[in-house]
Design goal:
mainly beta, 4-stranded antiparallel β-sheet, 0% helix
């Protein structure tokens, strides 16, 4: 994982991990059985609607130009 070029602002109370592969960043939540749940996927090669959100309790904003990722819990 090499997200050192990205600024990650995690404001969520969830225990999250960030995975980066090629042109995609995934936000995952580790589960107690050793597996992971994918919460969001961000396409980093496009500025158009680049976030797929799989957890309605999470809000993610992304700036591909600034290489900045913001993660929040929805209240």
């Amino acid at each position: 994982m090499s997200n050192s070029n990205w600024k990650i602002n995690n404001h969520s109370q969830k225990s999250l991990m960030i995975q980066e592969n090629n042109n995609e960043i995934s936000i995952v939540e580790p589960l107690s059985n050793g597996t992971f749940r994918i919460l969001a996927e961000i396409n980093t090669s496009s500025n158009k609607d680049n976030t797929k959100l799989y957890d309605e309790k999470l809000f993610v904003s992304t700036s591909v130009d600034d290489k900045e990722l913001n993660i929040f819990d929805r209240s």
